[in-house]
Structure formats: structure tokens, C-alpha cells
């Protein structure tokens, strides 16, 4: 048994290395003094400083934050409403809607991007930052619903009954009991949605109009003209911020 | 006819869960200010009745009236009742004071009114010092008091209690039985309590309805139920009861002679007026353990009945001794003898004696 345990431990380590090795390497090389990525020539902060003065990068960051904020608020509004509303439906209808919500999570993102593009063109909505926000809200709604419903199912239904028994209407029960008890899950879902929006490339690529460049789009266009240490630095920052947000989100959901 | 003085008036209430009748034509009337209990084993339908009164379940048939007003289509938040949940269902994100203030706030009471009512309610359950605590910082007994205060602060016409003491330990449970009774007297409101614990129901209630398989078997004062059970189920469920099954051999005026195939000898019973008993009818005779007397002498007091028995076991329990005496191969009776002079008679297993009782202490049921 002990031997098998040791063996499994080694496989796990290899796995972790495979997952996080490239990311660690990326972060390490973002501090590399050499312009040529492949050789190590000592430590430097210069690439991070270069990011700070690059106006087009700062613009893209601002766009990304705008998209993530608006799409998260939108997704939370729709997702929490849907999650709570699903509770008052009966068994079969509830299951059908819950399952149909999983679909956007499994269909290839490219398809979603293409269909959104088609949709916007058909409705003659000009592509802009707003269409990106709408696209992001769309794929974030299921994320919010899934996280919030998991919490909702763990709530004691007697609490809602107690509120009604004490004279609260449906809306008062929601406002004073259900939503406050869901708060950790709502915050967690919001952070998760925010991160997913921040990191998204494909849907953004299809729905972004001229001038609506987000950070991932910017990185992609920079790579076209060759790898540079600035990209390493930018990506390193991205990874750290994303991991931090996801970590916080998981922490909130566990509460 | 609607009884205007009744707090709750339930008429042939039916609730089906799938194919089974969870509540089977239950009719009850509870006068204002009464402590009424629904007693029965789990699955008897008592919680369903309570939840229908509260409005969380809809009856399939029948009507519920509270203070003379029909509750049909009245949602839980508009009913003049409040429920103390078995799990208390306190709001975990609110302090004790906020929990108690919830009801009055929802009813739109003024801030000053809310503050004074919350204080009064917390005083009533002796929790004024803990109003800033969260429910998770309280003991089980304290949580229950908060639940009580949270319900009573709304001055309900009827307070519903679902197994109110089941989550408490034995000692606290007995304290709370007394406490609940005195809170009810102070609050001057009708209490309807669901419990499976017979001792709890007997000590607290003015009247008790015994339920079994969705039906109400008997409604009466604790004394009625204990001393004049209407069925073997009620007799067995409330207290310990000794039974003897037999056949009526002779009828002599209002008395009859019963012979049992399960033991030797005959006994005399008083014929109950309301039962159609004839010669040859099978009957069950019930006698409570504390109404029995053990005797080794032949002498019989007037009106006493006796059967021959032998001591099987002696169980010492402090205030009294319980004797298990065998009357026949399948008949073992419980006899409780108080631990005073008369009880210290030094009987040991194997002793032959006679069990005796006053003829009026035996309850007769027809099969």
C-alpha cells in the first residue's frame, strides 16, 4: 500500500509540474534581462515598467475591466434571478431549464462566437464594446446560476417558510432572508464571472467592434509581430490576477 | 354551524400524499386559550395537520377556520398564526433582537413599537441579556426561546409548535414543559403542539388528540385518555398498560364474567354502557400498573378481582419497584409498587402470589 501511495504521489507531482511548469517558466522569463526569450541574462523589472507606459496596453486594460464589470453585473442580475426563480418551478420543468443552461458551457466557444456575430449582424446591432459585454454576460449566466443554485439547494427551506409565517411577502423574504444568505455564493459567482470575462478571447474576437480591443485581443495582436518579454510580463500579471480572483471566489463559495 | 368561541375549527380535513391518506377526515375544535396537543407516532399525520393550519400545505378536502374565518386561499403570511419550527429555523444572519423584530417589521409596525415589543417578548422568555448574539452563539435551549419569542411577538391568535422539545436534552425538556405552560398562561393565546412524546403531551396540555395513521382516535383531557382509553392503541401509546384478552362467559346485570384462554381463572368486569357486549363477545381488559396490588394472602377485599401469578422479574427504580409478573405463558403484567413500607415486601422471582385490582379500575374494550 505504501508503495502504491508513493507512486501515486509521483504521478500527481508530474501532473502538477505539467500544469504549472509552463506558467512558472513564463513568470520567470518575464524577469529576464535578455530580449531573446530563450537565454537567461539576469533579473530585471524593465518589462513591467515598459507595460506601464504603453498607452495602447493601458487602453486595452481599461476596456477589459469595463467589459468584465458590466458583463458581470448583467450576468449576476440575470443569473441570480433565474436561480431563485427556478426554485418556484416544479420538478420536471425545473430540471429541463437547469439542463438547458448547461448547454452554453459545452458547445464550442467558436460556435458561440459565430452565432453571436450572426445574431448581431441580423439585428443590425453595430459591433462595439457593448456587443462584447452582451456576449460575455451570455456565457456567464450559466456560471452564476450553477454556483448560486448549489448554495440555494443547501439552504434550509424552513427559513423561507419561517419568513412567510412571520408575515413576509415573497419579495420581502427574498430581500431579507434568501439573498442575504446567498451573498457569499453571489460574490463568489461574481468573481468567477469577472475572471472568465477578463480572460475570454474567442467570443470577444467575434463580437468586438473597431476600437473595442480587450487585453487578450491585444496580446494576440502583439504576438503576431513576434514574442517579446513585454508579453511575458503582461501574461504573468494576467495569470496572477486571475488566480487571485478565482482563489477568492472559491473561498467565498466554501463559506 | 360555526362555533364562534373556537380558536380553531377543523372540519373533515383530508390530505393525500400520493395514494396514501396522510390526514384522513380529521375534525377538531380548539377553544380559545387552550393548550392543545396532537399526539401520535411519526407518520400519524399530525405534522401535516399543523402545516395545513400554518398554510404551508393545502388540504385536499375539508376546511380550516381560525377565529371563525375560513383559511381557504389565505397564504401563510396573512394567517393569524405563528409556527415554532422543530429546527427553530432562526435566521442565521440576524441577531436575536433582529430575529424577534422580523415579524413586527414585516407588519409595518413603527420603530418605537417594534423596540418595545421585542423587549417584552425577550423578557417573557428571559433572554433580554442576549439580544445582540447570533443564533449560532446560543445553546439549544436558548435558540428555542428565541424561536418562541419570535413567534409570540406577533401576538398570534394561535401559536403552533412542531415537536418543540425534541432537540433538547432530558433535563431541559422537563424544565421547558413547565416553562411553556407558564408562557402560554402569560401570553393568553391558543397553543397547538405536535409531539410524539406522550409524557410531554400529558403534562402540558389541557386536551390531547391522539392520532394514528392519519385519523384522530380520541380527543380528551390527559386524565380521560389515561384512565378511559377508547382503544387498545391509545392505551398502549399513553403510559404502560396491562392487557388481558378474553371471552364473556356470563352476564349478570351490569357485570359480566370474562374468561381468558391465556391464563387460569375468571374475572368480573363492569359492562361499559356504550359497547354492545353479549355472551361470547371477545373483549380486552386493560389495567394500569399502579392500580394493581400484589398479595400473598388469600384474603380478598370487597370489589377486588384477582388472578394467580408468579414473579418473573423485579426492577428497582428508586421511587418505586416494578414487578414483572407472569399470569400465563404469553401474559406478563407490569406492576408498580411505591417504595414505601407496603412495597418492601421482599418478593423475589419465582414467588407465587395473586395480582389484585378494584373492579372499577379495569377498562373494558370490545375487540
- Tell me the CATH topology of chain A: MetI-like fold
Low-confidence stretches of chain A: none
Rg of chain A, nearest Å? 22 Å
**Which two chains touch over the largest interface?**
A-B, 17 and 24 residues
Q: Into which percentage range does the β-strand content of chain A fall?
A: under 5%
Radius of gyration of chain B: 25 Å
Overall residue-averaged pLDDT value of chain A: 88
The major β-sheet of chain B equals: 6 strands, mixed
Total domain modules of chain A: 1
Q: Note the run of SSEs of chain A as H and E.
A: HHHHHHHHHHH
Strand-pairing-aware structural class of chain A:
mainly alpha
- Total domains of chain B, how many? 2
Notes on the structure:
- The complex is a heterodimer of chains A (255) and B (367).
- Chain A is mainly α.
- Chain A has one domain: Orthogonal Bundle (MetI-like fold).
- Chain A has helices spanning 2-29, 46-53, 55-86, 91-106, 109-122, 129-154, 157-165, 170-199, 202-207, 215-224, 229-254.
- The longest helix of chain A has 32 residues, at 55-86.
- The radius of gyration of chain A is 22 Å and the shape is globular.
- Chain A starts with a helix and ends with a helix.
- The mean pLDDT of chain A is 88.
- Chain B is an alpha+beta fold and 367 residues long.
- Chain B has two domains: 6-229, Rossmann fold (3-Layer(aba) Sandwich), CATH 3.40.50.300; 242-366, RNA polymerase II/Efflux pump adaptor protein, barrel-sandwich hybrid domain (OB fold (Dihydrolipoamide Acetyltransferase, E2P)).
- Chain B is 23% helix and 37% strand.
- Chain B is built from eight helices and 20 strands.
- Chain B has helices spanning 46-54, 96-106, 111-124, 140-152, 170-187, 198-204, 222-227, 232-237, and strands at 6-17, 20-31, 35-39, 61-66, 69-70, 81-84, 158-162, 190-195, 207-212, 215-220, 242-252, 255-259, 266-270, 282-287, 293-295, 304-316, 320-328, 331-338, 352-358, 363-366.
- Chain B has a six-stranded mixed sheet with strand order 6-7-8-3-9-10, with helices on both faces.
- The A-B interface holds A 156, 158-159, 161-169, 172, 176-177, 180-181 and B 54-56, 75-78, 81-83, 85, 87, 89-93, 102-103, 106-107, 150-151, 154.
Amino acid at each position: 500500500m505504501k508503495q502504491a501511495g508513493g507512486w501515486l504521489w509521483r504521478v500527481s507531482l508530474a501532473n502538477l509540474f505539467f500544469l504549472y511548469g509552463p506558467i512558472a517558466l513564463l513568470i520567470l522569463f518575464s524577469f529576464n534581462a535578455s530580449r531573446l526569450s530563450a537565454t537567461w541574462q539576469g533579473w530585471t523589472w524593465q518589462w513591467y515598467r515598459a507595460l506601464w507606459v504603453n498607452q495602447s496596453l493601458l487602453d486595452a486594460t481599461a476596456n477589459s475591466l469595463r467589459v468584465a464589470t458590466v458583463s458581470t453585473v448583467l450576468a449576476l442580475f440575470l443569473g441570480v434571478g433565474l436561480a431563485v426563480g427556478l426554485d418556484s418551478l416544479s420538478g420536471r420543468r425545473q430540471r429541463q431549464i437547469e439542463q438547458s443552461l448547461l448547454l452554453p458551457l459545452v458547445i464550442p466557444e467558436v460556435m458561440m462566437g459565430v452565432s453571436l456575430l450572426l445574431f448581431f449582424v441580423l439585428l443590425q446591432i453595430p459591433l462595439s464594446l457593448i456587443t462584447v459585454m452582451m456576449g460575455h454576460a451570455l456565457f456567464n449566466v450559466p456560471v452564476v446560476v450553477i454556483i448560486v443554485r448549489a448554495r440555494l439547494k443547501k439552504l434550509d427551506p424552513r427559513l423561507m417558510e419561517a419568513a412567510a409565517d412571520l408575515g413576509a411577502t415573497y419579495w420581502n423574504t427574498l430581500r431579507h432572508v434568501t439573498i442575504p444568505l446567498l451573498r457569499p455564493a453571489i460574490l463568489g459567482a461574481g468573481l468567477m464571472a469577472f475572471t472568465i470575462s477578463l480572460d475570454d478571447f474567442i467570443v470577444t474576437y467575434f463580437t468586438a467592434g473597431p476600437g473595442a480591443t480587450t487585453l487578450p485581443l491585444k496580446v494576440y495582436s502583439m504576438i503576431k509581430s513576434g514574442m517579446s518579454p513585454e508579453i511575458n510580463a503582461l501574461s504573468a500579471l494576467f495569470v496572477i490576477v486571475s488566480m487571485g480572483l478565482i482563489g477568492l471566489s472559491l473561498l467565498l463559495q466554501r463559506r | 354551524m360555526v362555533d364562534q368561541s373556537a380558536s380553531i375549527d377543523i372540519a373533515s380535513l383530508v390530505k393525500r400524499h400520493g395514494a396514501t391518506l396522510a390526514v384522513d377526515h380529521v375534525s377538531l375544535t380548539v377553544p380559545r386559550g387552550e393548550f392543545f396537543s396532537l399526539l401520535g407516532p411519526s407518520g400519524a399525520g399530525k405534522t401535516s395537520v399543523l402545516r395545513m393550519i400554518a398554510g404551508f400545505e393545502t388540504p385536499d378536502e375539508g376546511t380550516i377556520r381560525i377565529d371563525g374565518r375560513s383559511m381557504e386561499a389565505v397564504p401563510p403570511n396573512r394567517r393569524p398564526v405563528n409556527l415554532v419550527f422543530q429546527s427553530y429555523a432562526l435566521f442565521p444572519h440576524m441577531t436575536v433582537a433582529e430575529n424577534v423584530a422580523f415579524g413586527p417589521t414585516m407588519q409595518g409596525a413603527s420603530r418605537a413599537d417594534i423596540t418595545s415589543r421585542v423587549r417584552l417578548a425577550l423578557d417573557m422568555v428571559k433572554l433580554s441579556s442576549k439580544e445582540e448574539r447570533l443564533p449560532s452563539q446560543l445553546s439549544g435551549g436558548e435558540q428555542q426561546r428565541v424561536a418562541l419569542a419570535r413567534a409570540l411577538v406577533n401576538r398570534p391568535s394561535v401559536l403552533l409548535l412542531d415537536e418543540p422539545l425534541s432537540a433538547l436534552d432530558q433535563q431541559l425538556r422537563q424544565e421547558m414543559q413547565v416553562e411553556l405552560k407558564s408562557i402560554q398562561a402569560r401570553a393568553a393565546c391558543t397553543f397547538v403542539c405536535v409531539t410524539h412524546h406522550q409524557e410531554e403531551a400529558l403534562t402540558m396540555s389541557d386536551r390531547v388528540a391522539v392520532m394514528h395513521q392519519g385519523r384522530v382516535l380520541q380527543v380528551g383531557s390527559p386524565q380521560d385518555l389515561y384512565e378511559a382509553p377508547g382503544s387498545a392503541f391509545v392505551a398502549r401509546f399513553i403510559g404502560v398498560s396491562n392487557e388481558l384478552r378474553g371471552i364473556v362467559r356470563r352476564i349478570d346485570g351490569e357485570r359480566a364474567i370474562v374468561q381468558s384462554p391465556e391464563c387460569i381463572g375468571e374475572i368480573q368486569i363492569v359492562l361499559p354502557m356504550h359497547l354492545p357486549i353479549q355472551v361470547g363477545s371477545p373483549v380486552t381488559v386493560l389495567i394500569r400498573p399502579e392500580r394493581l396490588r400484589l398479595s400473598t394472602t388469600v384474603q380478598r377485599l370487597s370489589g377486588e378481582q384477582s388472578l394467580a401469578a408468579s414473579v418473573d422479574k423485579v426492577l428497582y427504580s428508586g421511587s418505586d419497584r416494578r414487578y414483572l409478573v407472569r399470569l400465563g405463558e404469553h401474559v406478563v403484567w407490569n406492576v408498580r409498587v411505591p417504595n414505601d413500607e407496603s412495597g418492601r415486601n421482599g418478593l423475589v422471582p419465582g414467588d407465587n402470589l395473586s395480582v389484585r385490582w378494584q373492579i372499577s379500575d379495569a377498562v373494558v374494550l370490545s375487540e
